[in-house]
Design brief:
Radius of gyration: 31 Å
Number of helices: 12
Strand content: 5-15%
Strand order of the largest sheet: 1-3-2
Oligomer: single chain
Structural class: mainly alpha
Largest sheet: 3 strands, antiparallel
Order of helices and strands: HHEHHHEEHEHEHHHHH
Length: 242
């Protein structure tokens, strides 16, 4: 594909015979406001060499480039604004360039090796067990997958991570709620719906009985220590969720 900055640098260097193309290339900027063009060339640094005011340099350069057939085809407009020369890339030329590149490169279109030797970590939705999926899980999974594909095409070593939220104090609460109000048959029949309702009930009850929170913390501490019953319940909740 066309390197538009190099195209601009070449046209400016051609209009200013004593100016190096690489030096021009290093000065080209991308305006933050698209109304000021796709690229901009500041003329300040040329003032001393050309012994002219930067706005005058921008105006004269615009006139020279207007007579440049190659520049006319590549840019819809080349506009001097104060000390800057603003370039508006031709949409027709840009579209033609993109489509021709896509056709010629096929499946390799857009790929590069800029990420070689670098690792990029992409995290997905990281859902919690014992809870239903919601629209946020879809959104972050799609975004994660898109980013992973993009960075993979750029040559990065992409590590895809979708951490399963299957641990923490919430499981102390879940175990307490199951022991008090749950039964195995309901969990097996509708695991997510049942476990979620138990979790919600725990919080409702804890508003009236704060001691439940202490019981849940103590239960999770047992789970962390590998207590048999707590570990078996946690494992079961996890398997049913999956």
């Amino acid at each position: 594909m066309t390197n538009w900055k190099e195209t601009i640098a070449a046209r400016i260097a051609n209009a200013l015979p004593n100016t190096e193309q690489d030096a021009v290339l290093a000065m080209i900027e991308t305006p933050t406001d698209p109304k000021l063009g796709d690229y901009a060339f500041p003329c300040f640094r040329l003032a001393k060499e050309l012994r002219k005011a930067p706005p005058l340099i921008a105006k004269e350069l615009a006139e020279k480039l207007a007579a440049d057939a190659d520049a006319a085809r590549a840019f819809e407009k080349i506009e001097p604004v104060n000390a800057y020369l603003n370039f508006f890339v031709s949409k027709a030329a840009f579209a033609k360039d993109v489509l021709e590149s896509a056709v010629s490169e096929g499946a390799d279109y857009g790929k590069s090796s800029i990420g070689n030797g670098k690792t990029y970590l992409v995290e997905y939705s990281s859902p919690n067990i014992a809870k239903p999926f919601h629209i946020g899980h879809i959104r972050t999974t799609v975004i994660g997958a898109a980013l992973a594909n993009i960075y993979d095409a750029l040559g990065y070593n992409v590590v895809r991570l979708n951490h399963l939220g299957d641990y923490g104090t919430q499981f102390g609460k879940m175990i307490v709620a199951y022991r008090r109000w749950g039964n195995a048959e309901d969990v097996k029949k509708e695991p997510i719906k049942t476990l979620l309702s138990l979790y919600v009930k725990f919080h409702d009850e804890a508003e009236h009985d704060p001691a439940l929170e202490d019981e849940a913390r103590a239960t999770f501490a047992k789970l962390e220590q590998g207590a048999k019953e707590e570990t078996e319940l946690w494992t079961w909740f996890r398997e049913e969720s999956l």
